[in-house]
């Protein structure tokens, strides 16, 4: 890269830091180009994605006074936006993509191969399938899976042989999403803090249900529990009627 090109890229980065209020730091390790392009398309004009060498990003941060260098991963990308940090994180965190699993990937559920025909021609492939526990044979000139086969259990890691077989069977069992390291919006939000946007609604729901159950148990009336208290009173009345005949 020529000096002029470096200076141009550095200026572009510095201008983006000055233009946008919110900066999202993304770890690009294991993020396929195709899926990254899909994320860019989904974000549309609401965000601008910039990928540069880490050294270039560090230089731009130093010259613009952004104290974010320690949060940069080895292969960073920056997303500039005006969206609320938590709204942005929730949206991109819900963008999930199915991809082929590589060796070492831990599956989040059982991997089961259903019986039926495949597009594989008879040959070495049939031995590869059998090696990972798939019962296979030949039907109509193609390899067919004879019986439903569980080749991985939840939490197990994909082996080299299993990864090869899954590709041959066109089974995408891995799931990826944009790996957000941190978001800066005048103050820094690390990944743990950002994940509260997903955790809090569930916790609030659980707390509400616990409070509702307690209020019904102690018969404390409120608009949220009136119907349950009426049902409880009705059940008591019916039980009392049975006891006194």
Write down the CATH topology of the largest domain: Alpha-Beta Plaits
Through-space gap between termini: 95 Å
What would you report as the Rg, rounded to the nearest angstrom?
28 Å
Beta-strand portion reads 15-25%
Strand order of the largest sheet: 2-3-1-11-12
Number of domain modules: 3
List the secondary-structure elements in sequence, H or E: HEHEHEHEEEHEEEHEEEHHH
Question: Portion of residues in helices?
Answer: 40-55%
Shape: flat
CATH architecture of the largest domain: 2-Layer Sandwich
Q: Which superfamily, in CATH terms, is the homologous superfamily of the largest domain?
A: Ribosomal protein L10, N-terminal RNA-binding domain
Number of helices: 9
Total strand segments: 12
Mean pLDDT: 87
Please identify the top-level CATH class of the largest domain. Answer: Alpha Beta
Determine the structural class based on helices, strands and strand pairing. alpha+beta
Low-confidence stretches: none
């Amino acid at each position: 890269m020529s000096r002029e090109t470096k200076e141009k890229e550095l200026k572009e980065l510095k201008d983006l830091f000055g233009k946008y209020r919110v900066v999202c730091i993304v770890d690009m390790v294991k993020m396929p180009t195709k899926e990254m392009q899909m994320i860019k398309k989904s974000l549309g004009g609401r965000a601008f994605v910039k990928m540069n060498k880490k050294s270039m990003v560090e230089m731009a941060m130093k010259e613009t006074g952004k104290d974010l260098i320690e949060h940069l991963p080895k292969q960073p990308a920056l997303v500039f936006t005006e969206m609320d940090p938590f709204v942005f994180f929730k949206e991109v965190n819900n963008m999930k993509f199915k991809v082929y699993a590589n060796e070492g990937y831990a599956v989040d559920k059982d991997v089961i191969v259903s019986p039926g025909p495949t597009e594989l021609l008879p040959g070495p492939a049939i031995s590869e399938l059998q090696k990972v526990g798939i019962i296979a044979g030949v039907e109509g000139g193609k390899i067919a899976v004879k019986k439903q086969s569980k080749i991985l259990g939840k939490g197990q890691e994909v082996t080299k042989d299993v990864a090869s077989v899954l590709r041959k069977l066109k089974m995408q069992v891995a799931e990826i999403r944009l790996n957000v390291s941190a978001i800066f919006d005048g103050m820094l939000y690390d990944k743990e803090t950002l994940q509260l946007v997903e955790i809090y609604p569930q916790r609030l729901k659980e707390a509400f249900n616990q409070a509702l159950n307690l209020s019904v148990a102690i018969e404390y009336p409120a608009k949220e529990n009136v119907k349950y208290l009426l049902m409880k009173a009705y059940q008591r009345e019916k039980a009392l009627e049975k006891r006194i005949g």
